[in-house]
Amino acid sequence: MNPHLDKLQPYPFEKLRQLFAQVKPNPDYSAISLGMGEPKHPTPPFIQQALVDNISGLATYPTTIGSEALRGAICGWLERRYGLPALNPATQVLPVNGSREALFALAQTVIDPAAKALVVSPNPFYQIYEGAAYLAGAEPYFVNSDPARNFGCDYDSIPASVWERVQLLFLCSPGNPTGAVLSLTDWENLFALSERYNFVIAADECYSETYHGEEAPLGALQAAHMLGLSTVERPYARLVVFSSLSKRSNVPGMRSGFVAGDAEVLKKFLLYRTYHGGAMSPSVQAASVAAWNDETHVEANRTQYRAKFAAITPLLQQVMDVALPDAGFYLWADVSRTGLSDTEFAQRLYAEYNVTVLPGSYLAREAHGINPGRNRIRMALVAETEEGLEAARRIVQFCKNLSK
């Protein structure tokens, strides 16, 4: 067996299942889950219809590089969304079966396991980053998010001796679970580090279309273009961006996304995926073309999230330290003033009010002396507004009962 498998920790939801194993929730309340970040808004009918209309594609073996129509649609969306110059659909984009499997596979592509490599990851983080590092023969190096920096990571705190071993840096902007968005200055610093130490940046942007202000989050390719890195001899050098339709278009079951950026990295990634078996179903490709070409449903989806967050966040602020995030559909709340740890809070809330939240410590690791998720909870506001409001009312009552 692969010995690196023994380094993997249980997934956060398995830890949550164990935490709740001996708990019987209060039967007076119906179950409401804010634990998993799975979109619950309806899938737009036109995407469903595009899938049905192209069901005959199941009779055809797909190519790993995907159809010209899909690659063109992805390039068109990137150019419109981020104001980019024309991308080459043959070399700068590649369809993938959701960003999750692509994030994992990229590590297998770019890491030299004989080099005692390090993979930099934010902390807290999406657990795929850690697993991808271990199974590629590398070690993760965690950089804690800092509430004083709007949950940004202090990459300047990483010593040169660490950077010299880094081959891959994972980041998530907007962040999971914090919702934090990197600034142009942040990107400029990271691009300079990537050039100096020759590591690949894997920018996970699957939450980019759920934002709460008027200004859309800055993207990695957009930042590179603004800094003049789209027109150099090797455009977007060492930068690969990941995006997905799951959150943008409410189609998590379709498993459709893309990677885009450095053509030299993507050439090797395509070679890896050809052997890995990462081709997307032609039927899903056709439905994806329809989704990437339409913004009306995305705007409606975003409006629904904005209204939901505007209604729920003030309620929860009565009893815990929580603020509207830059983007994403999570609330990252500090429950310290309740007197309970994050795991105690989640367990008792489930037992007494049948509401599920995810302990923040399950999303992070002990690094540099602290677990930055400790005494925090993640709440995914993915259900319809009324169900979310009911969950918030129960949480407020639970917290008020604690203070009595």
Automatic annotation (TrEMBL):
EC number(s) given by UniProt: 2.6.1.17
Source taxon at top rank: Bacteria
Record flagged with keyword DNA-binding: no
Chain ranges of the Aminotransferase class I/classII large domain: 32-383
Molecular function in Gene Ontology: pyridoxal phosphate binding; succinyldiaminopimelate transaminase activity
Alphabetized InterPro entries for the sequence: Aminotransferase_I/II_large, DapC_beta/gammaproteobac, LL-DAP_aminotransferase, PyrdxlP-dep_Trfase, PyrdxlP-dep_Trfase_major, PyrdxlP-dep_Trfase_small
GO biological process, one term: lysine biosynthetic process via diaminopimelate
Keywords: Aminotransferase, Transferase
Cited Pfam families: Aminotran_1_2 (PF00155)
Cofactor(s) needed for function: pyridoxal 5'-phosphate
Cited NCBIfam families: DapC_gpp
Listed name of the protein: Succinyldiaminopimelate transaminase
Lineage start: Bacteria, Pseudomonadati, Pseudomonadota, Betaproteobacteria, Burkholderiales
